[in-house]
């Protein structure tokens, strides 16, 4: 048996470690038998916990982390060392290294485990800080390599005497010299007279901590190049210790700019002689150029548009479409085409067809939008006329059957609340004899007058259309009862009574009316038209000059 007094002295001394003496039962249960004062102080375990099983004292997470290690030590009778976390009484999470030492009896059975827990938090943090410092140095080296060695611009670092200390690959490619031929030599050995002239003056300014930038058209490696040169002081502890010289080949860029300038001159010649509106718009939607044709087409001077938004004088209903289309063109690098309205100086709204193409610079950044605009007002008027033909009766200029059905469909899809409606079908009683007696031209005039008289008795929101021949149909909206329908019908009948004077002839006309008054929305436009037609024939069967009302429940 263990000498408990001796064990207690070992546990309490415990050096600088947290010491726990655990009694083992059956290799799977572990009871607190002794805990040193340091462990009590750090973990919050008290004398009340002595005799309790491991799971009763620890949190669930901590228990399931520790338990397998204790079982391993008890079953193998060998020392087990592992790392873990524990929460101290100061509410800090500490990193620990735990050593489990099994104590065995004369039969070789593990009766106790002595657990020694060492706080290695500071050690692990120091290791982490060391690793982070190492990583920071590596990142700094990579950044330096990206900024200097791998930079696409040519870079050379020189000391205060102008001696070359380091060059990157781009510098070797630009100058045609190898690194070994350059290091340790003055930069003047590879500079021509013009480079020295500008370089000396700039170098003196950089030594005074003033960065310099200038351009030269000069010779390098046998080629005439446009070079952008930047000189930057290398400052250490407030002292200039050297200079970075960065050379960027901008030959292609300058060539493109000169070409663009020539193209712009050609463009201006074309724009000034064009009958379309030509406009250049920048990234902020501001007009940078407006062609002289603005004066002849819109009546405004082109100067009245330059500096204004691309929405200047545009119809407010078209503004958002224009902005969305321009944004899409810039993001997708695609041309766009659309119609819009713009105001003439006389106040009229003209229709235009716009074609716009985004222009990007050599870096792929949006530069400007070229917009060509053509007046299509005549075409729009013709299209409107065709649309009117498609939806209107050419004889009476009233809506036709197609327009009426479209109105019905739109109305049936609306949320009307408690509002009711009715459909009325009309035709002229005994119209055929009128045609036969007076001729078709006279009959056409009768039909036109019949349509006008019906329309004159309708209210806002109502619609009358010619179905064909002498047959008309009407939609009455905003109703609350059958009486509302009957009032409209009686007004129409009153208007039709008496003599009609057409082409110096007198005629007397009456009408039969079929009425459908639905009490629900579960009905189609075609069903309503059929029901109104059936009601019309029912009215004629009653003796004409009357109406028949059909209620649909």
Task: Provide structural commentary.
- By secondary structure, this protein is of the alpha+beta class.
- The protein is 39% helix and 31% strand.
- It contains 17 helices and 22 strands.
- The chain has helices spanning 4-13, 37-43, 54-57, 60-76, 121-149, 169-175, 179-182, 193-206, 251-272, 293-297, 319-332, 377-391, 401-413, 431-438, 440-456, 482-496, 525-541, and strands spanning 18-25, 29-35, 80-87, 93-104, 110-119, 154-158, 164-167, 212-220, 223-236, 239-249, 277-281, 287-290, 336-343, 349-360, 366-375, 420-428, 463-468, 471-479, 499-502, 505-508, 511-518, 547-552.
- It starts with a helix and ends with a strand.
Strand content: 25-35%
- The largest sheet has its strands arranged as 2-1-5-4-3
Report on the biggest sheet: 5 strands, antiparallel
The dominant shape is: flat
Give the C-alpha Rg. 49 Å
- H/I helix tally: 17
Number of strands: 22
Mean pLDDT: 86
**How much helicity do the residues have?**
25-40%
What is the distance, rounded to the nearest whole angstrom, between the alpha carbons of the first and last residues?
Answer: 102 Å
Structural class: alpha+beta
Poorly predicted sequence stretches spanning 5 or more consecutive residues: none
Organism: Alkalibacillus salilacus
Protein name: Diguanylate cyclase (GGDEF)-like protein/PAS domain S-box-containing protein
Domain GGDEF: 419-552
Domain PAC: 80-132, 210-262, 336-388
Task: Looking at this protein, list some descriptive labels.
Nucleotide_cyclase; Diguanylate cyclase (GGDEF)-like protein/PAS domain S-box-containing protein; 31% strand; 553 residues; five-stranded antiparallel beta sheet; alpha+beta
């Amino acid at each position: 048996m263990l000498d408990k007094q001796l064990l207690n002295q070992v546990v309490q001394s415990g050096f600088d470690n947290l010491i726990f003496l655990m009694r083992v039962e059956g290799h799977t249960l572990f009871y607190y038998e002794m805990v040193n004062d340091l462990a009590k102080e750090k973990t919050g375990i008290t004398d009340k916990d002595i005799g309790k099983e491991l799971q009763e004292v620890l949190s669930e997470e901590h228990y399931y982390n520790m338990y397998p290690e204790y079982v391993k030590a008890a079953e193998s009778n060998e020392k087990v060392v592992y790392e873990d976390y524990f929460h101290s009484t100061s509410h800090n999470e500490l990193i620990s290294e735990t050593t489990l030492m099994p104590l065995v009896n004369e039969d070789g059975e593990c009766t106790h485990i002595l657990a020694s827990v060492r706080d290695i938090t500071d050690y692990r943090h120091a290791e982490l800080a060391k690793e982070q410092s190492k990583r920071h140095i590596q990142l700094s080296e990579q950044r330096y390599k990206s900024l200097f060695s791998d930079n696409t611009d040519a870079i050379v670092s020189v000391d205060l005497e102008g001696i070359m200390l380091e060059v990157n690959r781009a510098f070797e490619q630009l100058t045609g010299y190898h690194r070994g031929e350059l290091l340790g030599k003055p930069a003047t050995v590879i500079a021509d007279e013009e480079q020295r002239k500008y370089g000396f003056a700039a170098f003196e300014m950089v030594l005074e901590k003033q960065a310099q930038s200038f351009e030269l058209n000069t010779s390098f490696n046998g080629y005439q190049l446009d070079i952008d040169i930047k000189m930057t002081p290398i400052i250490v502890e407030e002292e200039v210790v050297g200079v970075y010289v960065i050379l960027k080949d901008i030959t292609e860029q300058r060539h493109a700019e000169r070409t663009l300038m020539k193209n712009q001159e050609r463009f201006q010649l074309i724009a000034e002689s064009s009958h379309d509106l030509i406009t250049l718009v920048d990234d902020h939607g501001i007009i940078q150029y407006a062609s002289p044709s603005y004066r002849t087409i819109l009546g405004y001077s082109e100067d009245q548009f330059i500096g204004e938004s691309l929405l200047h004088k545009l119809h407010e209903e078209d503004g958002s479409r224009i902005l969305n289309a321009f944004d899409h063109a810039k993001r997708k690098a695609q041309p766009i085409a659309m119609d819009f309205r713009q105001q003439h100086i006389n106040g009229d709204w003209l229709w235009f067809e716009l074609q716009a193409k985004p222009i990007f610079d050599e870096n792929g950044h949006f530069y400007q939008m070229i917009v060509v605009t053509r007046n299509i007002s005549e075409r729009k008027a013709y299209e409107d006329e065709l649309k009117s033909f498609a939806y209107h009766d050419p004889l009476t200029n009233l809506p036709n059957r197609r327009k009426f059905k479209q109105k019905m469909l739109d109305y049936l899809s609306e949320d009307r609340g408690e509002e009711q409606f009715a459909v009325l079908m009309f035709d002229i009683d005994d119209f055929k004899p009128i045609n036969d007696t007076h001729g078709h031209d006279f009959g056409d005039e009768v039909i036109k007058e019949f349509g006008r008289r019906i329309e004159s008795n309708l209210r806002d929101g109502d619609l009358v259309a010619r179905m064909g021949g002498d047959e008309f149909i009407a939609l009455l909206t905003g109703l609350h009862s059958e009486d509302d329908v009957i009032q409209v019908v009686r007004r129409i009948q009153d208007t039709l009574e008496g003599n009609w004077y057409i082409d110096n002839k007198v005629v007397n006309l009456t009408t039969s009316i079929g009425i459908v008054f639905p009490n629900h929305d579960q009905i189609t436009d075609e069903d309503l038209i059929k029901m109104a037609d059936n009601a019309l024939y029912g009215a004629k069967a009653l003796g004409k000059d009357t109406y028949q009302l059909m209620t649909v429940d």
